[in-house]
Amino acid sequence: MSDLTAFEITKRWPPANSEVIQLYSYPTPNGVKASIVLEELGLDYEPHLVTLSDADVKSDAFLSLNPNNKIPAIIDPDGPDGQPIGLFESGAILIYLAEKAGKLLGDTPEQKYKAIQWVMFQMGGVGPMFGQLGFFVKFAGSEIEDPRPRERYIAEAKRLLAVLDKELEGKDWIVGPFTIADIALAPWLAALDFYGAEDLVGWSDLKNVPAYVERFNARPAAAKGKGIPAPK
Known about the structure:
Radius of gyration: 18 Å
Oligomer: single chain
CATH class of the largest domain: Mainly Alpha
Helix content: 40-55%
Number of domains: 2
């Protein structure tokens, strides 16, 4: 059995099988990237539910693996050179797991770097901007009377959606073949419905993005991964 006791997080969330990848997550748009990619790659893993409460994500145990107190995070007992490795940041996890399995990075070196490019687009643009939009539409920010913050994120979400809609013209997936870029993007696009923001960003006027999300959600790995770990 692999020895993961050097990772403090395992004392609070002990592994049942220390030979497989340990996933610490919650089913948010960022969290499900990790579970979906694990399902798509067919890698064995064990999910641990880490709620978004301070008691979990700001606990000493979780901070020992991710000092930035955000899900998801993983421990791979069979990391580089056969040694265990802990990782946080969903984009880094996507790239690491795809490279480990030798899948979901396109069919050519060019497609690999295009896939990574669109992962960065999601990490630097779509995720932060859509997350702020959700805050000002569905959550506490909706109580702020000043319309400017809300309008700013609506406008930026529209711009980002236009970029994606144009890129998807004539393609099923953002790079061509299905890659980690789609796993990064689609859960955040689907979040617009959860936020109740689709009408605000002109979702029905988009030509390619809505069908793209439907194709993604129809994938068995996506359908399964979206509920892992199951919230209590």
